[in-house]
């Protein structure tokens, strides 16, 4: 029997004070949100959380 696994990714923008500023479903979406908040690319890190869920 085979098991289907779904991969769920969540992206978080983290500022230099190590605070989570925002979260999104893609890196591109993080970049858009952070630009609207006044952050420039390179002034924040992106953390990716990956979760595997059996379906």
Q: How is this structure best summarized?
A:
The protein has 55 residues and is of the alpha+beta class. It is built from 1 helix and 3 strands; from the N terminus they run E-E-H-E. Helix content is 18%, strand content 45%.
Descriptive notes:
With 55 residues, this protein is α+β, with helices and mostly antiparallel strands. It has one helix at residues 27-36; strands at residues 5-14, 20-24, 45-54. It has a 3-stranded antiparallel beta sheet with strand order 2-1-3, covered by helices on one side. It starts with a strand and ends with a strand. The relative contact order is 0.37. The mean pLDDT is 95.
Q: What distance lies between the first and last C-alpha atoms, to the nearest angstrom? A: 13 Å
Quaternary form: single chain
Strand content: over 45%
3D shape:
elongated
Rg of Cα set: 14 Å
Order the strands across the largest sheet as they lie in space.
2-1-3
- The percentage helix is 10-25%
Mean pLDDT: 95
Task: List the defining traits of the structure above.
alpha+beta, 3 strands, about 20% helix, about 55 residues
């Amino acid at each position: 029997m085979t098991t289907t696994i779904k991969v769920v990714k969540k992206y978080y923008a983290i500022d230099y004070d190590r605070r989570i500023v925002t979260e999104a479903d893609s890196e591109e979406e993080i970049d858009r949100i952070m630009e609207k908040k006044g952050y420039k690319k390179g002034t924040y890190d992106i953390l990716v959380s990956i979760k595997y869920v059996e379906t």
